Amino acid sequence: SAGSKRAAMMRWPVKPAASSETSQAAGGPMTAGLSILSRGQPAASEMKGVSVAYFLIHGKQGGSQSAERDLRAARNFSQAAEGEGLEQIIYLGELVDPTADLSPYLRSRHEIGFVLRHGKTPVTELRSGMIVGSGSALFEMIRYITERQPILVCPAWFFSHAQPIAIRDALAYLAEALETPDAIGRVIEIGGPSRLTYADMLLGYAKERNLRRWLIHTPFHAPRLSAYWVHMVTPIHWRVVAPLIEGLRAELVVRDETARKLFPRIQPIEYQTAVHLALGRIARDSVETSWSDALVTAMGDVKPYRFTVEDGMYVERRQTVIDLPAETVFRSYTGIGGERGWLFMDWAWGMRGWLDKAIGGVGLRRGRRHPDEIHAGESLDFWRVEEVEKNRLMRLRAEMKLPGRAWLQFESEPAAEGKDNTLFTITAYFAPYGFLGFFYWYAMWPFHKPLFDGLARRLVSRARVLARAY
Predict the structure, then answer these.
(1) Domain for residue 397, yes or no?
(2) Alpha-carbon distance values, 300 to 220, 307, 414, 416 (Å)
(3) Cα–Cα distances in Å, from 164 out to 169, 173, 193, 196, 423?
(4) Residue 311: which region, alpha, beta or left (left: phi > 0; alpha: psi -120 to 50)?
């Protein structure tokens, strides 16, 4: 009922933006947490005062140990729900092909549903195919492959059919299941409006990104070889993708139209529209939601250097703790560029600006409006100031000629309560365009480490000078 509390048990720590979107979709407050259910902890504390719980936990690494761990989690979750007197469990499972043998991964997902349904708390099981959105392993696999491989040798599973669903529609079904009494105790298949092969999805993604891709069809399934190939060309580990690929040989489409009857208000969008929305953040230069999970929450999370791939972007991050207040560190990094220069390896920045000018870019000589003050929307050499939060953040968007989109972000956050310690973070982001962007990043990466390491040191030194001056 409206206004009741709910709990979502996630399989990864929830991003602030993601939890907000889910909460809005559910029409009210949602408590999100990650419980170590497989270790026998029944998560009763998370369920106190809760009427409905979402079970969204499942492992991705395959194998009997992973399957047994997931089943233990389901049993413990069901027992905790029963102990707290919950009215309903909502479980997001997987579509199945009744004519095919289930892969170990799909079998595990359906056994989880079986375990939950045989508890005393009523269960609504929503069975979904591939979800189109950041964080979906299958969507990210298609995304990375399309971005990085101009010619693809496609095994037979590329031509199996699926019914991909936009993440917004999956969230809508999860929310509606909460408000629809007729959904209790039922297994409901959900999907998008169109049946597509994975090759269709790949080409649809390429169309959205204006990439030309050529597919070579082979008659072999080769799931293990495919997993190694995906591992080589994407950041997704083969142990994660192997069980998924094994299940792709089946036709994972909606065969029961119950969802349409129970939830008439939900009109799922087409795959192409879903891809457009999923990529819309980068197209609008609005990438905050993919950065939010990178913010540290405790001093134990501080690492001097990290290189990762997040939501299709290359991310290179440096962090250090400085015994100065955040406002002093903020003044240090917001004063770079222009006549003051870039403090370290100025010749390298100058050379990059000269190259940019030579190929028709803006170059480095635009300078800055004021030597110390900075505002969003202003130019800063070959950057555009995208966002400024006083004493906390400055984000620059590159306007130089690049085979992709690039940002450089500086952050200064209090490192501890009651102390003038600041966590200083410099992060470089790059969203590549196709194979050329992929090649460009790795060609430039060896130069980034000395450049940004030196810049970080010089900015710390400048902050100390500013602290003495004030």
Answers:
(1) yes
(2) 47, 18, 14, 12
(3) 10, 14, 8, 8, 41
(4) left
3-state secondary structure of 188: strand
Same-domain pairing of 268 and 322: no
Q: Which residue's entry shows tokens 């190694």?
A: 228
Which amino acid type is present at position 151?
Answer: I
Q: Cα(329)–Cα(326) distance, rounded to whole angstroms? A: 5
Host H or E run for residue 355: helix 346-358
Structure tokens at 398: 């590159």
Catalogue the E-assigned strands of 218-322: 305-310, 313-322
Reading the chain (470 residues) residue by residue, the pLDDT tens digits are 444 545 555 443 333 333 334 434 443 333 333 333 444 454 556 677 788 889 887 665 555 677 788 888 889 889 988 988 899 999 999 998 777 777 888 888 889 999 999 999 999 999 998 999 876 788 888 888 888 788 888 899 899 999 999 999 999 999 999 889 999 999 999 999 999 999 999 999 999 988 889 999 988 888 888 888 887 777 677 777 888 888 888 888 999 999 999 999 999 999 999 999 888 754 544 433 332 232 233 333 444 545 455 555 788 889 999 999 999 999 999 999 888 888 888 788 878 878 877 777 766 666 788 888 889 988 888 889 999 999 999 999 988 888 888 999 999 998 866 568 899 999 999 888 777 887 888 888 888 888 888 999 999 999 999 988 86
Helix (H, G, I), strand (E, B) or coil at 151: strand
CB 290 within 8 A of CB 281: yes
The DSSP 8-state label assigned to residue 165 in this structure reads E
CA distances from 402 to 55, 137, 152, 359, 454 (A): 43, 28, 25, 10, 23
User: What are the structure tokens assigned to 40, written together?
Assistant: 């026998």
Q: Positive or negative, the Cα torsion across 223, 225, 229, 234?
A: positive
- Domain end, chosen from 278, 304, 330, is at 278
Provide the greatest CA pair distance for the chain.
76
pTM assigned to the model? 0.63
Same domain membership, residue 265 and residue 344: no
CATH of the domain at 308: 3.30.530.20
Nearest alpha-carbon partner for 426 in 342, 364, 312: 342
Instruction: Please provide the distance, in angstroms rounded to a whole number, between the alpha carbons at the two ends of the chain.
Output: 58
Which amino acid does the sequence have at 261?
K
β-pairing, 393-398 vs 404-414, is antiparallel
User: Which helix (H) or strand (E) element contains residue 405?
Assistant: strand 404-414
Alpha helices in 84-131 (DSSP H): 104-117
Three-class secondary structure of residue 158 per DSSP = helix
CB 281 within 8 A of CB 287: yes
If one counts the domains in the chain, the total is 2
